[in-house]
Each structure stands twice: as C-alpha cells, then as structure tokens.
Amino acid sequence: xxxxxxxxxxxxxxxxxxxxxxxxxxxxxxxxxxxxxxxxxxxxxxxxxxxxxxxxxxxxxxxxxxxxxxxxxxxxxxxxxxxxxxxxxxxxxxxxxxxxxxxxxxxxxxxxxxxxxxxxxxxxxxxxxxxxxxxxxxxxxxxxxxxxxxxxxxxxxxxxxxxxxxxxxxxxxxxxxxxxxxxxxxxxxxxxxxxxxxxxxxxxxxxxxxxxxxxxxxxxxxxxxxxxxxxxxxxxxxxxxxxxxxxxxxxxxxxxxxxxxxxxxxxxxxxxxxxxxxxxxxxxxxxxxxxxxxxxxxxxxxxxxxxxxxxxxxxxxxxxxxxxxxxxxxxxxxxxxxxxxxxxxxxx
Amino acid sequence: xxxxxxxxxxxxxxxxxxxxxxxxxxxxxxxxxxxxxxxxxxxxxxxxxxxxxxxxxxxxxxxxxxxxxxxxxxxxxxxxxxxxxxxxxxxxxxxxxxxxxxxxxxxxxxxxxxxxxxxxxxxxxxxxxxxxxxxxxxxxxxxxxxxxxxxxxxxxxxxxxxxxxxxxxxxxxxxxxxxxxxxxxxxxxxxxxxxxxxxxxxxxxxxxxxxxxxxxxxxxxxxxxxxxxxxxxxxxxxxxxxxxxxxxxxxxxxxxxxxxxxxxxxxxxxxxxxxxxxxxxxxxxxxxxxxx
Lengths: 348, 292
Hints:
Strand order of the largest sheet of chain B: 6-9-12-13-14
Largest sheet of chain B: 5 strands, mixed
Distance between the termini of chain B: 25 Å
CATH superfamily of the largest domain in chain B: Phenylalanyl-trna Synthetase, Chain B, domain 3
Largest sheet of chain A: 7 strands, mixed
Number of helices of chain A: 11
Oligomer: heterodimer
Distance between the termini of chain A: 84 Å
C-alpha cells in the first residue's frame, strides 16, 4: 500500500477499535465511506491525478475502502454479540425465586373503633341513621336551640361554604332530620364525619362522631346513665369507672359530660414515679362524651309534644376514643396515611 | 375565668382545701381546668384557679358569682361586703343620662370622680389582674378591670373634661358611618350598632370599646365611670363583625345583672379613692327602675 495512505488507515483502525456502540461504528462508516466521506472524497479526486498514475492510485484507494469496510463490519459483529450476551445476562430469570405477594389492605384504626362502637349499639337494638355532611344553619344550629346570636355558637368554630350552607360541626343535625320524619319510639345512632376550624395535636379540622338518641314516653336520666355506662364498659373494660358531671349544651337540659377512670394511670392521677399523669392531667378522669336530656325546645322544633315525650341524646368523638384505646398521642397520625403507623393495628 | 383563691376568700369563707374546692366546682359544672400555687407580691401563699365557664353561666364570670356558687354548694359562708353609696351629690349632677334605645340598653349608670392622680396601680391590684390574664395599664383602667372581674359588671372610664356636653345619650348609630376607637382605628358602623354619645358626639361603641377622643390619659384629672347593661345580641353582633372580642363584650353577650350596675359603680368609686386619689362628684342613672 502507498505509504501516504498509511496514517489515514491507522487513524481509521484506531477509531474503530475504540468504538463502543453500533451507532458509533455506523457514524464512522458515514464519516469515511459515506457520500461526503473522506475516502469517497479521495476517489473523486482521482480525476485530477496524472493519467499514468491514475490506475495505481485507484487500486490503492479501492483496497483501502475494502479494508475499512471489512473492519467496520467486523467491529459491528463483535459489538452485536457483546450486547446480546449482556442482555441475556441481565434478563436472566431465576425461576426458583418465590413470587412477590400483593400487599394486603387492612381496616383503618378509626374504622375499627367506629365499627366496634356501632356494634355495641346494634346489639342494644339501636338503628343507624345518616345525614348530609353539608348542612344548613337550621339543622346544625337553629333547631338545636342555638339561635343566631347565641354565645354557644362560639363552642364550635364553623366552616361556612355558602351563606346558608356549612360543614356540619356535629352529628346532632341527624337527630333533627330523623325526628322530623318519624314518630317515637326511636333509638338511633348517627355515625359520621364532622368539621370544625381547629387544628392541633388533639384537634383535627375533620373528625368523627357517633351521635345517638332515644325518645319515647317516660325516658329518664336513669336510662341515659344505664345505656352510656354499659356502652363505655363494652368499649373500654367491664370494670371501667364512669362518672356524670354537670355541663351545658344548648340542645339538652340537664346536660352532663361523661368521664371514665383514666386508662393510662388507672384513675390515680399519678404514674409509677409519682409524676402526674399527662393524659388525664393528674385528675384521674378522662372526658369521653357529652350527653343530656333532649331540651323541650328541640322537641317543639320537630313537632313533638314535650309533655308527652322525653329522651336523651349523646355524642362521642371517635378519634378521642381511638387515641385512648391505642395510646396515640397526636390525632394527626390518623390522617397522614403513614404505613408504619397503620400497620400497627390488627388486620381483618 | 382565671382568679386567685385569696381574692375569692374576700367574698366567701372557704371551708375546704383548694383541691377539695376544685373537685366541688368541677362536679357542679364549673370545670376546674388548672389549679396551681402562687405567691403574692407581699409574699403570701395563694392559688391560681382557672375555670371553664359554659355559655349559660354568665353569672359565674366574676369573683362574686363564683363565691355565690361555692356558698350554694356548701363550700362556705357568703360575705359580700356592703358598700356605702357616696353621700356627696353635686347640684346640679355632673352629667345627665338619657337612654334613647331602651330595648338595647336597659340601664345606664355613671359616676363622676375628680381629683384623679393618674399613675400605676398598686402591686396587689396588678398581681390579681395579671393572675386573671389582664394586663395592667394605669390605676383608672386597672380599677375598671378589677371591678369587672370582681362583680362581673364591665365598666368604662371616660375623661370627664373631654366630655363637652356632659350629657350621655345611649342611641343606635343610625346615619353615623364611622367611629375612631381608642386603639386609633377607624371603625365602620352599621345603623343598628349602639353608641354612647356625649350630646351629639359619639364617645364609645357601647360595651365594646371606648373612643380615642375621650380616652383616659396622662392629662386626666377627672373621670366618668360607666356601668351599664346592654342587650347581649346587639353586643355580640357588633363585636363579632368588628373582630373586637373582649372581656367586656364576653360578659355583655352572656348577660350582666340588671340590678348590679350600681354596686359595681360604688365599688369602682371607692377603689378610685383608694388607689388614684379620686373624690366622688355624684352621677347620673337611667332608668331608675331597670328593665330586665
């Protein structure tokens, strides 16, 4: 071969040798042998070579072109083989490995507690009623004996969605809706979500309540005490201490908060190291639900004769009960959907 | 409602220890939210009690009210000190009082006190105010707040010399659209808002906040103390709309004792004499028989 072509040949050989992909090799083919390639250019230049030198020069160039073509084809073949082997190695399947299981869902801790509460009431012959989450002022406040300018409205910071539409602040409107459509005797519970403008470790803007009421002739405060004591002992433990403490709700009279003996310190108000119990703040008691005898005004709103009928009503916070049952200190954990938290509760 | 036990003891001979008293109150519907030992500026032992007062118990938003409750629960003997109404009566009275809106204001009593030396109130008074969550300002304002906590009757003090007409008129705002309260903000009024006027000039948004132009300040030498009963719904609507919830509006919304305005006024006049050098000048009351 002509010595003048040797550097070009070495350059091409070197570049082919260092190429790592098929695309790169094809690029080299274009660069040297393509229509505007180096070798093609040299062949075109033959017409300017002296006629006597032309055959020799032409032969040399054709030889070089054939040589480069063979080198490129060879390199392509090698690269193809390598990538195939690589793919085979990568895609190799160990058919003896066990299959991956689909993750099994479980019941959310709040649903768990809600179902447990509902079961207790169903076993006592209560039925379940539901109402809309978006309520009007009349059912959420007015008919529950909370007129427009009543300071008791401060007890429940409200989300309004329109002039007369709000997110219900309690499940009590279901009482009104049920009584509006039916006559006593009634014993009903109304579980569901409620909304208040509150957000901290013990308050969530959305939480759950189980409301309940019983109306008939001759229902007395003793019925309220008996039913609620039984329910709390079913939910917590058979020997839970229960106390009824006077309070105020606009829709019941008299009203009572119901406390149970603290489940953390056992009701003593102090822990083993005699530090005051944080959960009950050293009182030995935990406020667990609100209750009372339905106010005669409420009966008038739904067209019942308060001289004929009486009844009691109550409402309990599902999150509060779940926090105490499971020892959860921050209500927000229930709504963050962190699997590490949710997996700690029993499955089906 | 936060208070100290020694203050309560001025109105009831307590029979029980603090923790027993707390238990009694909690089980009567006045839930004790906290109970903690304190020491007074004179070095005496005292206790701080915080009560959760439900909206139906406006009568328990005062030391006297809680003392009454404790006594009724068998927790001790009630001893509300009788106050001597001041004998001095200026002739003619230093102010006249007119209620143009009796539905919204069932009683308005006012007493003038001269010889005021404005300054800080004594340490014992500041201590009790702060234990109740109220910041001490000066002896006149502190006396009005102190008496409010003690009796449940909110009071307001005007600078008497800045009331030109010396004629108090309680009336709805009507066509009046704006009023500058003592925090310096211009407030938009609605026709139904209740105003206290000096003649034709508004000097306070009834039950909510006084006006800047009649505010008690360093130049004050005489004051007019207001002790009135306003309609709960009127006060609540205005306080809510203007975002001006205060210890006073909180009590008016829940209803104050219609017969209690004079007792609170006499107490304030006596205390102004004690802590601010005040001398009673007499006052005005309307109507003489309060509507309920």
